[in-house]
Amino acid sequence: MKKTRRTALAAIRPLAAAIGLATAFGAAHAAGYPEQPITVVVPYSAGGGADNAARIIAQGMGEVAGQSVVIENKGGASGSIGAAFVARAKPDGYTVLYDASSFSINPVLRKLPYDAKKDFVPVSQAVSVPNILVAAPGSSFNNLQDFIDAARAKPGRLTFASYGPGSLAQMAAELLKKDANLDMVHVPYKGGAPAIVDVMGGQVDVYFANAASSLNYVTGGKLKALAVSSSQRMPELPNVATVGEAGIKNFNVVEWNGFFLPAGASPEVVAKLQDLVQKALARPDTREKLAKLGLTPVGSSAEDFAKFVDAEQTRWAEVVKTNNIQVN
Fold first, then answer.
1. Under a CB-based contact definition with an 8 Å cutoff, are residues 273 and 123 in contact?
2. Taking the alpha carbons of 307, 312, 318, 321 in that order, is the dihedral positive or negative?
3. What distance in Å separates the CA atoms of residue 273 and residue 124, rounded to the nearest whole number?
4. CB of 232 within 8 A of CB of 122?
5. Which among 45, 66, 223, 311 counts the fewest CB atoms within 10 Å?
6. What start and end residues bound the annotated signal peptide (predicted)?
């Protein structure tokens, strides 16, 4: 018996030593992170909202870290192509996903080549921006209650635009449909620009437009703001009520961007990257550039961001089920 025990212990010692060595190596590796350029994959086309924000933040990250932070665009399939690429990447902290609200919407609408909950580690929410429910300047609707009254009086006749099936613009309107018990028709477009043009012209009744792309049209009188989707009024539109203030309780929808690492990334690397993002977002020059795009810096902790992403996916799953939303 004693001999067997000694033999077992002898076999275990090298394994324990190897594990200890690997742990020490991983910790030492994380301590020096980043030691080489970081690639941030943006799963959308260059020049879009997420890409513009990512480039501003990446510049700040590079200056904080003393390493290059390179943006690589891998667009397509509502962001899932780029996300799948990062999910398969080595989890060493040098391939990072910079995704948007679609990260929480895609899993409840589409069959994906990855598991959003199991294949990624949330690192930090970078920015947020509310949506503005807009209508044509000559519209008979002056506020959200006007629109709700008209929608209830004409079920199935009023329309809402979006920049694509499954987009946050659609989901915000679908949430309004659910919570206000409305019957409206979805009119999807292949981008935000054509959606705004048709709303301006009155071809579509309303649109939950990203504030970063629509605020100038509102302040310039080319669009009429009926409500804002966030829980607080926008400082730029102090006289425009929130959806919640119009009586739709607990309505708080914002577009967001955030950083993710592939599953398997060490807690040390996650913490280092989180710190890097937070320091970049704290820089006055970074904040000023983001503000010009209408974006609010966030810089949340990995733990808080994970809870936020999970809550977002749960909410949109409920909306998809209740409204029986399907996309091709």
1. yes
2. negative
3. 9
4. no
5. 66
6. 1-30
